[in-house]
Amino acid sequence: SVSPGMLPLCRRLMVWSTAPRQSPGLPLAPCRAFSNNKIMVELDESSGVATMKFKSPPVNSLSLDFLTEFCISLEKLENNWACRGVIITSAIPKIFSSGLDITEMCGKSTEHYAEFWRAVQEMWLRLYGSNMVTVAAVNGSSPAGGCLIALSCDYRIMVENPKFSIGLNEAQLGIVAPFWFKDTFVNVVGHRVAESSLQLGSLHPAPKAHRFGLVDELVPEEKLQEKTGAVMAQWLALPDHARQLTKSMMRKAVLDRLVAHREEDIQNFISFISKESIQKSLRMYMEMLKKKKG
Amino acid sequence: SVSPGMLPLCRRLMVWSTAPRQSPGLPLAPCRAFSNNKIMVELDESSGVATMKFKSPPVNSLSLDFLTEFCISLEKLENNWACRGVIITSAIPKIFSSGLDITEMCGKSTEHYAEFWRAVQEMWLRLYGSNMVTVAAVNGSSPAGGCLIALSCDYRIMVENPKFSIGLNEAQLGIVAPFWFKDTFVNVVGHRVAESSLQLGSLHPAPKAHRFGLVDELVPEEKLQEKTGAVMAQWLALPDHARQLTKSMMRKAVLDRLVAHREEDIQNFISFISKESIQKSLRMYMEMLKKKKG
Amino acid sequence: SVSPGMLPLCRRLMVWSTAPRQSPGLPLAPCRAFSNNKIMVELDESSGVATMKFKSPPVNSLSLDFLTEFCISLEKLENNWACRGVIITSAIPKIFSSGLDITEMCGKSTEHYAEFWRAVQEMWLRLYGSNMVTVAAVNGSSPAGGCLIALSCDYRIMVENPKFSIGLNEAQLGIVAPFWFKDTFVNVVGHRVAESSLQLGSLHPAPKAHRFGLVDELVPEEKLQEKTGAVMAQWLALPDHARQLTKSMMRKAVLDRLVAHREEDIQNFISFISKESIQKSLRMYMEMLKKKKG
């Protein structure tokens, strides 16, 4: 059963550390590949590993529809006890995800901004707080929100192509990454690298990102699938219960901080994004993108 | 004078940052080597350096008796103003310490679990909060609680043998390192390495442990004593008072957190360890260890 | 208009994150080089970059006069909307700054200690919390308070001469770096390196300092100016507003902590520095310095 809206999803997540997910006494639930518009999901029940492939051309941007589908897919897997791990990757060549869809933040109503931002929060709460093992197979560039998705996984493997870059480059667009993007980033790369990278809006080529730990491993593109599978198998060799409690212990402080300031964070986003100067700078950025394509 | 129980030890520790330890006006207290059952202690009064050698065969596991003796030995040294630094090492080949003694956590009473866990806490509070310079000379493998002892020292030197490994591998046994193990670990290796190592229960070979800072230095086995002495001399060249206040400033937040949640942490341990599923997994682990030996 | 005392400066700083600094609608304020006794300041209005050169022989020590002039210069630049970035460097060969002036801490009145310490705090609050891009061009040794100035900038470039060293070496003088020196240090190099470096009072030669991130980049002395200019240009390519909000998000927790404990921190300093044992050790240190020179 899939929750249609965001609120029920959210409520379920908040109790994730106490509610047991696995019910090994029940018979295997039938579970096949399911695909909506924007994300392809396949679950291999023998290994317990699902693969989520972003396929929302041209650049897997995180629109409200995409985020909603992402959350629903994650919830389905989280509630399916046959699934213990998720690999997140892209079906679009050269791009993992381009991040938040700027059209959702431009010229829309306050209500729309609120709904959109709540969906962004929801996606992060669900992914960063997932009980499953999450591995990002970053097979293309991954700016801003795309980078956040990778940062929220347990492990990041990236194709070693130096043309692929990754980073939280919000500052380059004149906008500011919210505090929970920052907290997630600091947990991965430490304070110093996060501080300069966020201020400069740096997009780091894969080799450099690997040097300071933003990605854990680099592989040639043709080895990505094999390597990702091997890493996932290594993580799944551990007993779920101890691993999940450990993950919760590591991430709880940062998750709780957003949960405690969620409405305030939405209001901040709305008042920031509604400013005429910000709207103007986003419109200019979109114009530039269009010209690039044309 | 040696305190027989744990509570007086604990009370003394909590005032360590205000009570001056040194009384240079008093005559030299007589102090020779003392040895109980499980730990050999030698104090060189000319240098002010004590050496504690774990000698509890077969693997220096941290039983209640071992922990009690460890705490008493530390307290004796802490209160002896002729002692300014402690080197912690093993008298058993190939093993530094195998960590908490599993037999203390299996099939025992609630009261026993409480007493045992309080002793583990006491050991850490005393070692991590010690006013003395503490150097771990890790001359063998050092899993779980053994790793915690090394992490709690000021500096870690390990024999460069890649067969010796170190790490908090609790997750591999289906149990969870408590938050203060985690805090100590994060302070040494940072959030990212701690997160994946704790979830995977990783035991890192010495060279890898050195690469990400879990140990500060690697040396050939035959150079360990010389190197440890040189490092200790370097630390003792600093005035005690400034060094102690600095150490307290760095570690106080993490120490205070356990002191504030000590009873809660004991109750958590008891309710976790009393679960039949955990008991079963610990029994299986002990069976496996017995078969390995046999 | 320059505030004569410290309190008005301080009040202004506390609202820095809400009060907009730039008023692009106003005509360009006339701004040329200004120089007081101890610091030379030049503003290039075409690039928006000011250069502050310490020129207080023999070693740019941070006396009360120096700190006051430093704060006033920073405030002038901060309030001049034609200035967007500041390069901090030394006009004295081989030394960036020797840190706090020990004569200000020796044999003076309680009132003097309070005034001096308030000025040290003020300098850090102003520099670490600056809205401008701040780059340290470290062209000489930089112990203690000199290191703090470098740590408080956004980016540190150091001359690659291994004879130049940098670090918070307070412990070597028998004194203790205050918590906000420590917080700033941990934000740059992480907890482990900060803990051992602070306890040992380590002064790291430039190459080693670079290895663990205490400085971001090393260059030959003759390339320092060119490189510093290039880095500054890279930072100024970002829109000010987003960069400033990001910087504030990264540094606010640590800044707020001193603001909240400022008077307490002054009292701590006074009672520590007034101890006869500390006074004696500072007098001995000054004697040693005099003999070295003589």
Measured between the Cα atoms of the first and last residue of chain A, the distance is: 43 Å
Q: What would you report as the Rg of chain A, rounded to the nearest angstrom?
A: 18 Å
How many domain modules of chain A?
Answer: 1
Number of helices of chain A: 11
Proportion of strand residues of chain A: 15-25%
Count of individual beta strands of chain A: 13
Subcellular location (chains A, B, C): Mitochondrion matrix
Family (chains A, B, C): Belongs to the enoyl-CoA hydratase/isomerase family.
Catalytic activity (chains A, B, C): (3Z)-decenoyl-CoA = (2E)-decenoyl-CoA; (3Z)-dodecenoyl-CoA = (2E)-dodecenoyl-CoA; a (3E)-enoyl-CoA = a 4-saturated (2E)-enoyl-CoA; (2E)-tetradecenoyl-CoA = (3Z)-tetradecenoyl-CoA
EC number (chains A, B, C): 5.3.3.8
Give the helix/strand layout:
The structure is a homotrimer of 294-residue chains.
Chain A: H1 6-14, E1 34-35, E2 39-44, E3 49-54, E4 61-62, H2 64-79, E5 85-90, E6 94-95, E7 99-100, H3 110-128, E8 133-138, E9 140-143, H4 144-152, E10 155-159, E11 165-167, H5 179-189, H6 191-200, E12 204-205, H7 206-211, E13 217-219, H8 224-236, H9 240-260, H10 262-273, H11 276-293
Parallel strand pairs in A: 3-5, 4-7, 5-8, 6-9, 8-10, 9-11, 10-13
Antiparallel strand pairs in A: 1-2, 2-3, 11-12
Helix pairs in contact in A: 1-3, 2-3, 3-10, 5-6, 5-9
3D architecture notes:
The structure is a homotrimer of 294-residue chains. The first copy, chain A, has one domain (31-293): 2-enoyl-CoA Hydratase, Chain A, domain 1. The longest helix of chain A is centred in the C-terminal third of the chain and has 21 residues, at 240-260. The relative contact order of chain A is 0.12. Chain A is α/β, with parallel strands linked by helices. Residues 1-31 of chain A have low confidence and may be disordered. Chain A has 11 helices and 13 strands. Chain A has helices spanning 6-14, 64-79, 110-128, 144-152, 179-189, 191-200, 206-211, 224-236, 240-260, 262-273, 276-293; strands at residues 34-35, 39-44, 49-54, 61-62, 85-90, 94-95, 99-100, 133-138, 140-143, 155-159, 165-167, 204-205, 217-219. The first copy, chain A, is 49% helix and 17% strand. The interface between A and B is medium-sized, with 22 and 22 residues.
